[in-house]
Design goal:
By secondary structure, the chain is an alpha+beta fold. The chain has a single domain, classed as Nuclear Transport Factor 2, Chain: A (Roll). Helix content is 26%, strand content 38%. It has 3 helices and 5 strands, in the order βααββββα. The chain has a 5-stranded mixed beta sheet.
């Protein structure tokens, strides 16, 4: 799996949240990950929301599929509602 991202967004994530997109990409390795379409807005492309664990903590990663790569758009630590969803919903997509 190959990843790409906007380096300035990754740096901003690191400054605001303490981790960059390279770290967040590890959520894709979680065999229990949950993926659903991100339909909150019209983005001009199909985006997805992944919930996955890294080092025992659940993260949310917003991404788009671009040809042979996954483009990470944003990432953050999951909130309590998202953690419950991760723990109780069957795997999707």
């Amino acid at each position: 799996m190959q990843f790409e991202w906007d380096e300035s967004k990754s740096e901003y994530c690191f400054l605001q949240r303490g981790f960059d997109f390279a770290y967040a990409s590890q959520a894709f390795q979680d065999p229990q990950q949950r993926v659903q379409a991100d339909t909150r807005w019209e983005y001009g492309e199909q985006r997805f929301q992944l919930l996955g664990q890294i080092d025992g903590r659940v993260f949310v990663v917003i991404f788009a599929e671009r040809a042979t790569r996954i483009r990470i758009i944003s990432a953050r630590k999951a909130n309590s509602r998202e953690i419950k969803f991760y723990e109780h919903q069957p795997r999707s997509l």
